Amino acid sequence: MSEEPTRRPRRGIPDDSIQPGAETADGSALRTAAAEHHPDDTPAPAGQGWSRSSGESADGPAPRRGLIPDDDPATDTPEQDTEPESSEDGKSSTADPDAAFRPPAGKIPRARSHRTGNRRTATPAADRPHRAAEEPGSASPDELVVDRSPLRRPWVWAVIAVLVVAIVVVAVSRLNHQSPITGASVTPTPSSVTPLPQDSLMSAAEVSRLDTKASWKVDDTLSTIPADSTQTISCIVRDADQPTPQSSWQRSFTASTKTATAALHRVDGYADEATAKSVYTQQAASLAACDSVPSLIVSASSVKGLGDEATSLTVAFQGTTIQYRTIVLTRIGREIQAIDASDNHTPIDATAAASAITAAASRGCRLAGGTCPGKVTVSASVPPTSDLPGWLITSDLPRLTPDQGEWQAAAPAGVSSKGTQCEGVTLASASGPRERQQRTYLLYKDSSAPQGFGVDSLRFGFGDAAGAAAFAKKIGDSIASCSKSLTTAKVSDAKSFTGVGEKGAKISGRSFLVTQDAGSGNKAVFQVSVSTVGSSVTYLLANVTTSYRFTDDAWSQLAVRAAERATQAR
Q1: Which CATH class is domain 394-566?
Q2: Cα–Cα distances in angstroms (integers) from residue 181 to residues 169, 189, 506, in the given order
Q3: Most-buried pick from 26, 230, 337, 525 (CB within 10 A)?
């Protein structure tokens, strides 16, 4: 082995890749951990290498534990790293006691030189050999002492400090029902989101705004709502693929009235605002469709100032007894609130429902990270779009027999209706319209309905409002005077109606009851309406009988709704 000093760092940690019992390049066996437990087998240095010999004297020099010999020190460029120590006779020592501990090149990173200043004291490394000689039993000055304690690494203390600060901030925020104050916006994880408190729910005093003359009481309060619970917000279907709320509360109320006035309030808190937005979009779409039988959409309202976004819908459950339900759905940050107010006589006003929920929304808005309610305004609006924009949906059509009937809609297609024979034009081919389509709705599961009972909705598009108005007037005038031109026809119940569509579009129209003599004592009876809104004309026709027909109010409301839907066409 060369006597020249090496520039390699002395190894302090054995290479795990070398297995116990392996041999060095010169065939020498390496020291294993077992030697520590069998002093008699402890290897001793033999010349330049290591070998295991049970016959060697135990007085020989003890090997340095945990270090692996290197028999190829000459692969690195020599560099004067230490001064050769002199013997008593003044001659330089020719044996390098650390030559056997030098690692192969490239195996481990270069260690810090043991000749650098001591980080514990200001004593230079050059002075430590003399001090070591003075202290019996101390380690050789040329031995590398490796401190593996993880607590001596500064980054460990930095991580611990950050974790401690985070735990303290979250704990304080939970005690104060406040979100942690941070310098930057951080998306909370489910484990760091503060659950919504119970006072996010309305109180009996607050719900009394639905009916100030009634006495209200709390019936039930739930913090866990079963998936199969019978108490749910009307029209809102919670699909299995929707994100699960981090916390939920639900409270039911009843009032001392003869019309079974009641209310249900639900609050759901989600992991973050983005999740709440997604869920709100799904729930608002479900509310807009409200396709659970036997619901009928009565009206809709636009709600402003109640959180980040809100909507309201009033529906009628057409059972044996009509039950009206007014739903207000709102999102405040990562929180979604909904109130469902019911009455068996008259619909509860959407303004009253929004007012009742405002106080509860105000209490939780800061914790939810949303817009706190301000001046809440409620105004009538067209029901939100659903299904195919521009067309009636099944929840727009009323039942004709209490607690019976289910509407189904066909896909829009070309015009095929023959009309009443009183329109004065061929609906399928009359000149003027740029486009025309028909959608048919059929009623099932009503034993009183005539076979094939349904409603045809025809929509005609024109280049301008004037063309639409002229076409609608021609059809309306022809029907109104049909009995004069067709002796087999009888026209009655002529009515006019108006309405407002999307973006304030004005709706105007007329409705009629037409009876045709079909011969052999048979009669064909039709309820019809023709309306205009902008450049669109909507024509409705239902094949009713003298005893099975829509009420006049119900037919007029359906005609207005058809025109309202026409303003939503894309």
Answers
A1: alpha beta
A2: 8, 15, 51
A3: 337
